[in-house]
């Protein structure tokens, strides 16, 4: 039996695409009989059993009626062609041939560029796609199908329950559906304390009281960071030879001394002269200091070596650039923050070559 169907368009560039879910009935001679094989050919019949094998959609030939698919990575030339399909039963008998006319079109399919290009959010009422508040990517760049994003929390709605909506746009400028979650806005103001070490000291065994120990020195010559590398000053007198407990503590920007940290040290009073101490080396390529930073004082970007043609941008949580600064060849860039409101910002540092580096900065 020979069947026909109207021409169907097929893309030549499609690989292993399902041409059709073809449900092929087979004459059942005995109970439990099923399809054992299927094949197809283009235009000229090579004879039963000599066509190109087809695959069952469920991975196994075992039913009297099977949904099968054919290989489309090697199609005939562009234009109309006759596709022939037949199946074999459990008794190795080939059934009647089914044919259909297929029009093979020129290659037109292209894989879409799947990535997020922007994201936005809004509270309660939808202003329409593209009219929400812009969100910023955590890594400073929208270039992935899945992005970690953050929203601006400095301007929240009134106290109480609200619905927060978030949506994203892909590389084809198509907006996806909005994701919604209920947020309960609580009263209160969050402020960021100035976190940095302003002084450090040490003492041996007996505590002389906070502020009365021997001063410690900052390795970089300036107490300005939340973490400081320290080195000792003068050795206290008198020095007791033998096992002692060496204590250290630091003071923050608010004048508060932290708890003492103690370590057991074996002090040898017979050593004369000085002992060389290796110079401290900061292995970090780029450091923001201080961080958090005050808007009135600004902050600095310290590099491990001299960098040239540096461009610094300050991006708020809404993805807006609020400040920009340029510098020539230098190992440290001083960045002013006049007019910058308190909040969390992304600092992008662009060099002459290579990708920019991003750091998080808290401004109080």
Distinctive features:
364 residues, mainly beta, Immunoglobulin-like, 4 domains, four-stranded antiparallel sheet
Strand order of the largest sheet: 1-8-7-3-4
The global form is elongated
In CATH, the topology of the largest domain is named Immunoglobulin-like
- Strand fraction equals 35-45%
SSE pattern, N- to C-terminal:
EEEEEEEEEEEEEEEEEEEEEEEEEEE
Taking all Cα atoms into account, the compactness measure Rg is 37 Å
Q: How many H/I helical runs? A: 0
Average pLDDT metric: 78
Main pleated sheet? 5 strands, mixed
SS-based class: mainly beta
Terminal-residue CA separation: 83 Å
Low-confidence stretches: 1-32
| Helical content (DSSP H or I, runs of 4+) | under 10%
Task: Please explain how this structure is put together.
This protein is mainly beta and 364 residues long. The chain has four domains: 8-105, Immunoglobulin-like (Sandwich); 116-185; 197-267; 286-363, Immunoglobulin-like (Sandwich), CATH 2.60.40.3080. The protein is built from no helices and 27 strands. The chain has strands at residues 8-11, 22-24, 35-42, 52-53, 55-56, 66-69, 79-89, 98-105, 116-123, 133-134, 136-137, 149-150, 160-170, 179-185, 197-204, 214-215, 217-218, 230-231, 242-252, 261-267, 286-289, 299-307, 310-315, 321-327, 330-335, 343-350, 357-363. The strands form eight sheets. The protein has a five-stranded mixed sheet, with no helix packed on it. A four-stranded antiparallel sheet has the order 10-9-13-14, with no helix packed on it. A four-stranded antiparallel sheet has the order 16-15-19-20, with no helix packed on it. A hairpin with an 8-residue loop joins strand 19 (242-252) and strand 20 (261-267). The N and C termini lie far apart (83 Å). 15% of the residues are buried. The model is unreliable at 1-32 (pLDDT under 50).
